[in-house]
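anyone seen this seq b4? input:
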Amino acid sequence: MVKKAIVLAAGEGNRLKPITNAMPKEMIRVGKNPAIEHVLKVLKAGGIEDVLIIVGRKKHALIDYLGSGERLGLKIYYRLQEEPKGTAHAVQLGDDFIGEDEDFAIMYGDNYITPYEAMRDIVDFHHRKEGGGTLVLHPVDDPTRFGVVDIAEDKEIHGMIEKPTMEEAQPFKVNDHWLNIAGLMILNSKIFSFIEKTERGKKGEIWLTDSIEMMRQAGNRIFGYEFDGRRFDIGTFDSLKEADELELKRRRENES
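predicted toks r here
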């Protein structure tokens, strides 16, 4: 079973300034709880027990809030990404946290996903497919902010691209939208060897999407799980507002 996860929480949150001048974006509340707490509850619902959080500088509030993870029923560890060198570089910092030939989850710390319990289905899907990885996918109208994929009927992924231009994204379009990599995935530890070979991409950063595509081209089958719940990347004020309203509504319904 998948028991470990790496959470990426080193981003600076530039699109949420001036709020992020005062706190990490992962500590911004979605409903009554910080975004990072929702992330950890999703992972726990899928059977995750040990979590390594990759943090950047000025993330003391996040560490102080989560502590050892005991309050959430998890064991939480931390590692500092000294400079923003990209998502693949951040994941690579957890190489010694993950065992040899071990499957593990990766989730972005600014993700809001509901229902939490969907993580169980994602883990089950990954085990049934017996591939090298499972990427959780969600439809978007603007592909330029995300990684998007080309997927077959059997859910195997045949190509992906990170933050394409609209022109680059056209071959990946499906039924008037694109399937983006929704900041949540399960990968085999083989990914670390491909990260080491990944060259810097746009903005001089090492993109995890590029590493996964290298892994796929080397013969490791990667599948896509099309998530039919609600998902928001809270990196913009608009998506943060939508996620906050949805979470407050969900809590009211659960309490009534």
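The mean pLDDT is 92. The CA atoms of residues 191 and 212 lie 7 Å apart. kinda curious what u guys think
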